[in-house]
Amino acid sequence: MAEQALIEICELYKVFGKYPASVMSQVHEGAGKDELLAETGHTLGLRDINLKINRGEIFVIMGLSGSGKSTLIRHFNRLIDPTEGKILVDGVDVMELNKKELEQFRRHKMSMVFQRFGLLPHKTVLENVSYGLAVQGVKKPVRHQKATEWLETVGLKGYEQQYPSQLSGGQQQRVGLARALCTDAEILLMDEAFSALDPLIRSEMQDQLIELQDKLHKTIVFITHDLDEALRLGDKIAILKDGELVQQGKPEEILLNPATEYVEAFVKDVNRARALTVETVMNPPISRITANTIGEALEQMKKLPEDYGYYVNEDGYQGILLQETLEQAAEDNAEAALNETLIEELEAVSPDAILESVIPETLDTEYHLPVVDEEGSLQGELSRSNLAEVLGDSSRQAA
Ligand SMILES: Nc1ncnc2c1ncn2[C@@H]1O[C@H](COP(=O)(O)OP(=O)(O)OP(=O)(O)O)[C@@H](O)[C@H]1O
Ligand SMILES: [Mg+2]
Questions:
Q1: 1 CB-near residues (< 8 Å, 6+ apart)
Q2: Which of 13, 119, 122, 214 supports an S-S bond with 164, CB 3.0-4.6 Å?
Q3: Whose CA is closest to atom 5 on ligand 1?
Q4: Atom 14 (ligand 1): residue with closest C-alpha?
């Protein structure tokens, strides 16, 4: 698509140390992180990062501790200046912003949710959430009104006058989220925002974020070192290793075609049945029958690989037609219109369904399951062998 990326990073390098510029030639010649540190005392934070983050997507950045995740997103709002490279946000080169513009940019364009909540301890929950608006100069009644609404949205109605220390970790993180949302910034940067939470609360927060995102369509950059979290939230995932981007793509691409051994090590223990949706493994919908008469339906059926097909009319998927049934009916009158009595019920699955949830149905029937979207349109077919292929072999190499 020709649409311009909201965040675009081009050939970004970051070296930490006294004289970064003096070691760049070594970096360009390919010196590794360890080598550079040993020889020059400089730390290679990022090397040649190129990526595009589109409007409205949740872009996950993943990697082990020290791989450069925080360094990377801190470039987005220029908490860190690059050693080399370009950072464009909505077409604007953030390095070109003057002090005042940068201030505006940080206040209005992006907000950040931190791992350790980062709430102001001596301010109430309401004041914490409305803080960003106060900085923007929004009047008290307005900002308190907005903050109250966001607190309600994240499930904290009634806690407005409490102090952060009176809240659980999960609740504090909700305050952090409400605070980030309250400024109405287009971009949310979330650096390990859920990592401090216990698994159950964490999973609730993930659900909440997904639910919010369905309504708000923000652009969210989400850092995690947890692959399950990355797969659950990410529209795209980028994987960093020692400051380099080793792979980026859709979750299923990463899962099914890990680019390197490092990525493979990340994905090998993933429960694919839980991580993949029907859509990512189904086959195209070839067994489609759209005929008006029994005779025409039989003609179409004969071209299909199986002795059944999915009957689809203007209202979408209707059910399954069996060759045997059609042949019997054709003996009476092949010119007759296809009628409902010939169509058998076969429940469809949704393209968005998690594979795990459809395993029983898939194994329970001798047919491929029709995959039908919300509008009733036939999108694909799911067979047992589709399942076996992705679930059976977890050590598959990149193709
Ligand atoms: N201010 C700094 N000065 C020197 N080196 C730094 C600085 N900030 C980061 N680094 C180095 O850059 C590398 C990447 O660090 P970064 O904090 O981005 O990692 P991370 O992927 O966010 O790790 P974690 O998962 O532990 O948060 C590390 O080797 C780190 O030592
Ligand atoms: Mg970090």
A1: none
A2: 119
A3: 16
A4: 68
Q: Which pair of tokens denotes residue 2?
A: 């020709």
pLDDT above 90 as % of the chain: 68
CB of 66 closer than 6 angstroms to any ligand 1 atom: yes
Protein residue with its CA nearest to atom 17 in ligand 1? 70
Compute, in angstroms, the gap from residue 389 CA to the centroid of ligand 1. 39
Which ligand 1 atom is at minimum distance from the Cα of 240? 21
**In ligand 1, which atom is closest to the CA atom of 72?**
18
Residue 299 tokens read as 């003609």
Domains and CATH numbers, the chain: 54-270 (3.40.50.300), 280-394 (3.10.580.10)
Split at pLDDT 50, 70, 90, the class of 395 is: very low
Q: How distant, in Å, are the alpha carbons of 70, 118, 120, 166, 175 from that of 193?
A: 12, 10, 16, 20, 12
Q: Note the pTM of the prediction, 2 decimals.
A: 0.80
Distance from Cα 71 to the centre of ligand 1, integer Å: 6
Contact yes or no for 353/329 (Cβ under 8 A) = no
Cα–Cα distance list, 89 to 112, 236, 243 (Å): 15, 18, 21
354 contacts 240 by C-beta, under 8 angstroms: no
Partners of 240 in the β-ladder: 245
Which of 70, 80, 221, 223 to mutate to test ligand 1, by most ligand atoms within 8 A of the CB atom? 70
Q: Ligand 1: which residue has its CA nearest to atom 7?
A: 16
Q: What is the pLDDT of residues 335-361, one digit of tens each?
A: 988 888 899 999 999 999 999 999 888
Compute the average pLDDT of residues 11-35: 95
Q: Tokens 């039908």 label which residue?
A: 372
Determine the average pLDDT of the residues in 142-171: 92
CA of 64 to the centre of ligand 2 (A): 9
- Gap from CA of 257 to ligand 2 centroid (Å): 26
pLDDT of residue 3: 65
From CA 5, how far away is CA 7, in angstroms rounded?
5
Rounded to the nearest 10 degrees, how much is the dihedral formed by the CA atoms of 348, 350, 354, 355?
A: 40
Segment 90-111 shows an average pLDDT of: 92
3-state secondary structure of 366: coil
